[in-house]
Amino acid sequence: MEQLRTFAQHLGIADLFGRGFWAVLLTFVTAAAITWRFIPQVRAFALRVGWADVPNERRLNTVPLPNAGGLAIFAGFVISIVVGWALRPIIIEQVNIQVLAILLGATLLVLVGFIDDQFGLTPLFRLGAQIVTAALLLVNGLRIDFNAIPFLPVLGGEVANVLSIGLTIVWVVGLTNAMNLLDGVDGVVGGVAFIASTVLLVTAAQFTDRAAAVILLAGLAGAALGYLRHNFNPSRIIMGDAGSTLFGYTLAAVSLLGTLKISVGASLLVPLLIMALPILDTTQVVVGRLARGIRNPLGHPDKTHLHHRVLARTGNARRTSVVLWIAALICGVAGMFAQGIGALTVLLTAAFIGGALWFVAARRMRAQIIEAAQTRRELN
């Protein structure tokens, strides 16, 4: 038994049989189970009321596809956080307020994203909402410290403060949009969000003062995994802007709550590596559009995203998802090694991620076979 405790401590689990570990585990399971079970009901309701993406030249679906999956993801995430909070209350008042600020900002973006999915909003309005949610984090003490970034000069006074505010807004708004722009092929964003959440969870778990970040990341990872059961190609539902912005914003915000403050030397490197895939995708898309003379690069969709490029080579949505999952996992492993996490912990984390993604993908493919057989019987 003592050997098991020691082994768990090497993985960042301070007490294998303590309340903290079980709170994290139950948060993850609750988020996954609620999202997994709730999505079929959301899908049925969405089809009745017309919450769906109609096929067009940019979309891969050939029939109207319900786009309210983000609501189920949000429900699983929030309910799981309440469960985790009840099992392990946050006793530090400032962190308590910061967690509430993150949840409030996420709620606002889910609402804006859902309205945009159904009725359409201008890019300027969406950007304004994202800046408001970033400001919500700033006023509650969540920010990037400019003077903590390595290789840059240490500045004093108001200059450093203004640069810190600017960097924080760019980080939050940038990553929120990066996850949104990456959402173009079934399963890509759900898988990338699950990988990033799990890797950041393991990274934060190495530090005793990151309990709030760990709980939030456990809920986010569980919700992503539960959603993937219904979204791996052929998808039965998509998350829409409500889901993709929820993932992007929450990952950006939680990284400010914990992992960006891990050490001066790795202040930005770790989360940048872990979330390199959506960041790289957005960067190359924006630069490409600007080079073509497009003044508003976020308001002119095209097929230059990484998922479009990979899909053109693979010719298959499933293979495209797996390729991008592997790329995201490689980035995550690099981030863990950059943080100095042990090889065994990294290996087990990668194995868990791979196994979990294989499980939900296999379940979706099995369900698709059963659905096809039922359809044939009905036609006969």
Question: What's the average pLDDT?
Answer: 85
- Assess the beta-strand content as a share of residues: under 5%
What structural category do the secondary elements indicate?
A: mainly alpha
Termini separation:
59 Å
The total count of helices amounts to 14
Give the beta-strand count: 2
The coarse silhouette is globular
Q: How many structural domains are formed by the residues?
A: 1
Low-pLDDT residue spans: 259-267
For the biggest β-sheet, the strand order reads 1-2
The arrangement of helices and strands along the chain is HHEEHHHHHHHHHHHH
- Relative helix content: over 70%
Report on the biggest sheet. 2 strands, antiparallel
What integer value in Å does the Rg equal?
A: 20 Å
Keywords, separated by commas or semicolons:
single chain, 380 residues, mainly alpha, globular
What this model shows, in words?
Helix 12 crosses helix 13 (317-339). It is globular and about 75 Å long. The chain has helices at 2-10, 19-49, 69-87, 93-119, 123-138, 157-182, 188-205, 211-231, 240-257, 269-274, 276-291, 306-314, 317-339, 343-379; strands at residues 52-53, 65-66. It has one domain (2-379). The protein has 14 helices and two strands; from the N terminus they run ααββαααααααααααα. Mean pLDDT is 85; it is low at 259-267. With 380 residues, it is mainly α. It holds the Pfam family Glycos_transf_4. Keywords: Cell membrane, Magnesium, Membrane, Metal-binding, Transferase, Transmembrane, Transmembrane helix. It is found in: Cell membrane. The chain crosses the membrane at residues 21-39, 68-87, 99-115, 121-139, 151-173, 185-204, 211-228, 248-274, 322-338, 344-361.
